[in-house]
Structures are given as structure tokens and as C-alpha cells.
Amino acid sequence: MSVSLLVVSAGAIAGNIPAIVQAYPTVNETLIELLTTIPSLFIILTILISPKVAQRIGYKQTVQVGIGIVCLAGLLPVVTTSFTSLFLSRILFGVGVGLFNPLLYTIAAGLYSGGHLATVIGLQSAFEGIGGMLITFLVGQLLVTGWRYSFMVYGLAIPILFLFGLFVPDIRPTTSDEKEAKTGPTIDRTLIYYLILLFLAVTVYMSIAVKVTGLLYDKAIGDATDGSNLLAFIGFGAMTAGMVFGKTVRIFKEWTIPVSFLGMSIALLLLARAPNLWIASLAVILCGFSFRTFVPYVFNEVNQKSQQATAQTALLLIFFNIGTAATPLTIAYLQHLFPFLHQSGLFYGGAVLMLVLGGGVVVVGKVGFMMRMSDSRKR
């Protein structure tokens, strides 16, 4: 759980950008803005090799190396004055997160199973949200002492590394794990189904982060500060979903995905029609809760049922990060094709898409059930 606090912490330094621009007036501003997003690219690239590294040096050791890199890379800007060193530190930060991110699910699956595993994966999701909010808050508090010192927040990785090494047992790769590392993941229909759903859901979810402040201005119900507060409320909804994920899955079972998508659809519709900040706040909390119910459900299913859980989890994380990074471009392209997807129209469109996806999941589930029943009768 403590390691999960670091998973989404790369973007926490976004508030530093104006100060860094002033500190390096000769550096292109776009290059400085990349400091917040360049880790995501290297997270994607490193996730691909993480399972193979783990096969060579061990799962626990790979996670420890990743945490150590995050700690060193995170703290480097405190002592360096070179922008080149600062930029390289952000690249290394992404490498560190990419090393341990997929292995957290593998270690959880090696230590727990059934309902206990579902609960642990839900808590991992909750702690990712908590980590994002906590580290962003601490960066803001430290920023008053100077932007370099705000990077000291990544010193949080030191006690996390100590606690992980002291309390988390090592797990050994199975024969299937070793084969998986050599051959790579099997891309079956179920995995493709999850990848498509994940990419689309992430894009819709991230559209709130990208466009919600503009929506508040368009409706004349809030400003940039209110938009920032709404993003915090999304995190609150996501954290709550993770805390109760085990119970949610026990209640809804195979209906968890369509119920999650219905919740996102209702949330986006509320946001599009919100007459005030109270309704907008309720909408984003519901959206965060629904989305962070869907995401751990997919990861839980893969780790519970797949014989290639580590590699398939890595693919899911890659699509998650690609969807996140590509959201502004995806939205711009869709708005070019469909001009009505501006302002409130974007959220109406997202609501319709999630409703259609939820209905599609129900249809696919019923068809699969009927096929299984037909096969059992033939036998």
C-alpha cells in the first residue's frame, strides 16, 4: 500500500512549472512543461521490461530498485542547478515507477487470492489516489520555501523503501512466470476487450481533468481555483471506491463494469448540466468513484484468472498511461470531427459513450453466458 502512494506522484510538481520557467529563462517553456509529462513516457517503456528484470533479480528486489531510483531521481533537483540534470532526473523518475508499478499486482496475487486479493487491489487503487493528493498538497506547502525544496517531498520514498524491505516477503517466479517472461503475453480476446474498454474509459475520465475548468468558466459558476478543487474531489471519490472495492465486487460481481459505466454516464450528465458548484462537485465525486471501481476490477480479473498475469497487467498499465497522455490530442481530434463536442457537449458525448459501452458489456456478458450454457448442454 505504501509503495502505491508513489505511483501517480510524477505530476505532483506541476505547480512548480511557473517558478522553474523563471529560474531558466533561456530554456524553451514547452521543454520545461515536459517535466510533468516526460515520466509517463518512460513509465510506459519501462513497464515492458519490468517483468524480465524481475525474473533475473527477483520481484521484491526489482521493486526495491525502482523505489530507490524514484527516491534518488526525485531528490536530485534539490541539489542540482543544471536544467539538463533536472530533465534527466524526471526521466529516471519514470523509469523507477515503471519498474515497480506492474509488479505490485504480481506480488499481491502471490500473497493473496479470492476476496482478499480483490480487497488488496482495491486498496492499492485507493492509495494511488491518496498518494497523488497527499504529495501534491505537500509540494504546494513546500513551494513557499522555493521550488527546489518542494522536491524534498520525494524523500517519502525513503521510509517506504525501508518498510517494504522489512515487512513484504519475497515471492518466487513460477514455471509459467518464467515462460511468460521469455515469450511475452498472450493477446487473447478477453485481454483485447479489457484494453479497449480501459483506453476509452481513461480518455473519458481524463477529459474532466483537461476540460472541467473551461466548463466552469463557460457556465459562469466557477474559476480556476474551483476547477482545482473539483480535481481534488475526483481523488476523494477514487479513494473511497478503493476502500470499499472488495465489498462492491461481492455485491455486483460480473455486473461491476456495467454498473461502473452507468455511474460514470450519470456523473458526466450531471456535470454537463450542473447549475452550480455543488452539483458539479457531486458529479466529479461520483465519476471518480465509478472509474476507480472499474479499473481495479479489470486488474483483479486479470490477476485472478490469467496464467500470464504479470505481462498482461503490464499491457493494461501501458494502455492506461497511453490513454492518459493522449487525452488532449484525442479530444482535439474528436472536436475537429464533431464540432458539437465543445463545452458541455463534450461531457454529454462522454455520458452517451459510457452508456453505450455499459450496454455493450451487458450484451457481451449475456451472449457469453448463452454460449456456455449451450456448450454444457451438448456435453
From TrEMBL:
Membrane topology of this protein: Multi-pass membrane protein
Ranges that cross the membrane: 33-50, 62-79, 91-114, 126-145, 151-171, 191-210, 230-248, 255-272, 278-299, 311-334, 346-369
Recorded GO CC terms: plasma membrane
Localization annotation: Cell membrane
InterPro entries associated with the record: MFS, MFS_dom, MFS_Efflux_Transporters, MFS_trans_sf
Entry-linked SUPFAM superfamilies: MFS general substrate transporter
Chief place where the protein resides: membrane
Domain Major facilitator superfamily (MFS) profile: residue ranges: 1-377
Record Gene3D superfamilies: MFS general substrate transporter like domains (1.20.1250.20)
Superkingdom of this protein's organism: Bacteria
UniProt keyword list: Cell membrane, Membrane, Transmembrane, Transmembrane helix, Transport
Keyword Cytoplasm assigned: no
GO MF annotation: an example: transmembrane transporter activity
Protein name (Swiss-Prot/TrEMBL): Major facilitator superfamily (MFS) profile domain-containing protein
